[in-house]
Amino acid sequence: MIYLTRKAEFSSAHYYWNEAWSPEENDRVFGRCANRNGHGHNYTLEVTVCGEVDPVTGFVVDLKELKDILEREVVRVYDHRHLNLEVPEFAATVPTTENIAVAIWRRLDGRIPHAKLYRVRVYEMPDLFADYYGEA
Amino acid sequence: MIYLTRKAEFSSAHYYWNEAWSPEENDRVFGRCANRNGHGHNYTLEVTVCGEVDPVTGFVVDLKELKDILEREVVRVYDHRHLNLEVPEFAATVPTTENIAVAIWRRLDGRIPHAKLYRVRVYEMPDLFADYYGEA
Amino acid sequence: MIYLTRKAEFSSAHYYWNEAWSPEENDRVFGRCANRNGHGHNYTLEVTVCGEVDPVTGFVVDLKELKDILEREVVRVYDHRHLNLEVPEFAATVPTTENIAVAIWRRLDGRIPHAKLYRVRVYEMPDLFADYYGEA
Amino acid sequence: MIYLTRKAEFSSAHYYWNEAWSPEENDRVFGRCANRNGHGHNYTLEVTVCGEVDPVTGFVVDLKELKDILEREVVRVYDHRHLNLEVPEFAATVPTTENIAVAIWRRLDGRIPHAKLYRVRVYEMPDLFADYYGEA
Amino acid sequence: MIYLTRKAEFSSAHYYWNEAWSPEENDRVFGRCANRNGHGHNYTLEVTVCGEVDPVTGFVVDLKELKDILEREVVRVYDHRHLNLEVPEFAATVPTTENIAVAIWRRLDGRIPHAKLYRVRVYEMPDLFADYYGEA
Amino acid sequence: MIYLTRKAEFSSAHYYWNEAWSPEENDRVFGRCANRNGHGHNYTLEVTVCGEVDPVTGFVVDLKELKDILEREVVRVYDHRHLNLEVPEFAATVPTTENIAVAIWRRLDGRIPHAKLYRVRVYEMPDLFADYYGEA
Questions:
Q1: Chain B interface, Cβ < 8 Å to E
Q2: Interchain contact, A39 vs B14, CB within 8 Å
């Protein structure tokens, strides 16, 4: 069993806001992130898959295929987008780093041929990241 | 003469748009950056000042003071903001990396005691940055 | 269950020395680290907490609160300090990267509301780090 | 139990090729990596060992000794070498990142005094790495 | 006048060898780099152009166009190639970091619309790079 | 003319203190750096030399020789040392990043065969560095 990790990047806008709360409550809980004009980040995504190494190719996963899946399922949907306004899973869910990691897991799980999705790591900033290993 | 550089960071949203153009023209020139919902970045700012080293303190510039100036003049104004919508210099100027570097120069020039502003560098992404050395 | 990691930094002096040994024995085991004048490092701390994502806020932990805890419990105590001379847990314990990771765990464990401390990682240099997951 | 990680680097040439296949099949599966003239990388190796912290020294492992083992068992053999042509384990095995991680595990396992080899991580590029935790 | 820098990467094999010298002389001068099987690196290229900012677009240079030029003139020619064996400028010139910087300058100079090539920087390793500013 | 830069690292302790001042004045000017127990950093040194590329070797400078000079003149003297207490140039000069850059220039200038020392850059932290280009 070997674990292979590939990085990808996307640059997106977002804000934190709970419609059920007053503006004051949003400010108190979310601070500067509650600015409805939005702000943004260069997100770094690390996707780890695991499996047996194919003895003929030496691959756990076809890297070109993995890159294409990340591009199609995540980067094309999130990059240069406003997460709250344009990405359906954040219409009613706050796009925190934690929730972005869970959402990317759901986008990728079951779509990687010959390997198992093991971990999704999302960096919002170089000094802050979230890891998700699936529902269990 | 010695050159001292200090980094700071801000996370902002922006888009590229020219009101004088049709949406098609904006799309053609600005591509995915023309999305009016905005996207965003973790910007890294490097400010270089130069001057003589004070023989008593060993400083070109008081670092605490420099940090406070960057915080007050730039970070507090740009961080967690939408550059087009909330920062006055980008109301009618496209917030490209080049223009952000020039704008930060204008915010800082003449405000650093005992040292001369030498260069403003702005990274929009780790693989793209602009340098500005002043008007001349 | 999601894992959230936040980084912090501190710059400290230290040396390696065992009072029960001769200077020669200290030199043999600790090499250049046995210099009693001390040397120092920019340490990077990565603290990982885990828990359920709060469905309302999208947070495992309040980031501002986590940052304040790291600042109060670790950075304020270690930063710009001599670990052997000024930090009580290293009065009689060699401040190796391993022991610093354990000491930071003990400072943080039980102090993070709503989340469980999962891992403490300490980098002494970019090419050397220690991970501690608790006593068990 | 604590985990200590040390990095090392080596710069090597390699190519991907399966002698049992036609050139066309090699091109189809391995793409640009199938160029028999070779290409190369700056590999980064992260070796993690685990064990109890020695209460006297504060070490899980003697760092100088660990560095010497990595140098002797891996860096001296791989650095400034063509992996396919000069490193025996890749004479008949494709030197993918996955296979390099497994090969380095086999070179190191059982050779680190007082500590257990826990993980071998190999970066081929900053955005691609493989982890191996041993045969089980 | 503003300076804009864009990075690109290529992974290549190379060796250092002077046909006019004996193998012993090559070994003495070039050390481990004289291994004729080749070794390799992940090179990082930073290309800096300068010019006036277009007041309408906010661009010194069209970034998409610059990226395409770097891709076509450099990356497609050098990446996943053996520099000595497959890149014409290194058939009789040692592909040192210095010479690679000069060669990339010659490939790019005069090909960037609306801006002037200012500097070519090539990293062979994170701790070694060469800068070239043109012939003058 | 080409510019070649090589990095090196050293880990040292230091403090900022002016004997002519009261403790209160030292605290006011130097803040936490005035702690006489010392603190420390992982310093990164970037040394840039310039010259003509030797047409036979492709070198501005022999890299092995440059590395040995940095090691002998700087790293061996500063690394794992207390700058104030053990390095003569800081006996009466505050070891600020600016002064360290100037001191390293003086240690290296005139000692690099076949090339001219162009710039000494010293990082005290990843977000703070000083550049020195010589006395003129």
A1: 16, 18, 29-31, 93-99, 101-102, 126-133
A2: no
Q: Pick the catalytic residue: F9, F25, F39, F80?
A: F80
Task: Give the three-state DSSP class for D64.
Answer: helix
Residue D136, pLDDT above cutoff 70: no
What is the 3-state secondary structure of chain B?
Answer: CEEEEEEEEEEEEECCCCCCCCHHHHHHHHHHHHCCCCEEEEEEEEEEEEECCCCCCCCCCCHHHHHHHHHHHHHHHHCCCEHHHHCHHHCCCCCCHHHHHHHHHHHHCCCCCCCEEEEEEEEEECCEEEEECCCC
Which chain D positions have a beta carbon within 8 Å of C94's beta carbon? 57-58
What are the φ and ψ backbone dihedral angles of A47, each rounded to 5 degrees? -110, 125
Among the partner-chain residues A33, A40, A81, the one whose CB lies closest to the CB of B12 is A40
Instruction: Return the pLDDT at E136.
Output: 59
pLDDT digits (tens, 9 = 90+) for F97-125: 999 999 999 999 999 999 999 999 999 99
Q: What total of structural domains would you count in chain D?
A: 1
Q: Clarify whether E124 is annotated catalytic.
A: yes
According to the model, what pLDDT value does residue A135 have? 77
Instruction: Please give the average per-residue pLDDT across E19-47, as a whole number.
Output: 97
Mean pLDDT of chain B: 97
User: Residue E123: closest CA among chain F residues belongs to which residue?
Assistant: F5
pLDDT tens digits, one per residue of D73-88: 999 999 999 999 999 9
Which residues in chain C land under pLDDT 70? 136
For E123, nearest residue in chain D (alpha carbons): D42
For residue C10, the enclosing domain spans 2-132
Angle, alpha carbons A61-D136-A64 (nearest 5°): 5
Do F38 and C82 count as a contact with CB atoms less than 8 A apart?
yes
**pLDDT for the residue numbered E78:** 98
Kindly determine whether residue F11 and residue C125, on different chains, have CB atoms separated by under 8 Å.
Answer: yes
CB E105 within 8 A of CB E119: no
For residue F64, the domain's CATH number is: 3.30.479.10
Is the CA virtual torsion D47, D53, D54, D57 positive or negative?
Answer: positive
**Average pLDDT of span B107-134:** 97
Are the C-beta atoms of D82 and D38 separated by less than 8 Å? yes
Facing residue for F39 by CB, picked from C32, C80, C125: C80
pLDDT over 70 percentage in chain A: 99
Chain-centre distance of CA D8, in angstroms?
10
Tally Cβ neighbours within 10 Å of residue D25.
12
pLDDT at F5 over 70: yes
pLDDT at F136: 58
Give, for E6, the enclosing helix (H) or strand (E): strand E2-14
- Does the beta-carbon distance from F101 to B59 stay under 8 Å? no
pLDDT at position D135: 77
Mark yes or no for CB contact B94/E4 under 8 Å.
Answer: no
Q: Over range E24-39, report the average pLDDT.
A: 97
Please determine, for residue F126, whether its predicted confidence score (pLDDT) is greater than 70: yes
Of F117, C7, E96, whose CA–CA distance to A128 is shortest? C7
> Taking phi first (over 0 means left), then psi (-120 to 50 degrees means alpha), and beta for anything else, what does residue F18 get?
beta
- Residue A59 phi, psi (nearest 5): -105, 140
Q: Is A33 a catalytic residue?
A: yes
Residue in A33, A46, A65, A98 annotated catalytic: A33
CB < 8 Å to B103, chain E: none
First to last CA, chain D: 20
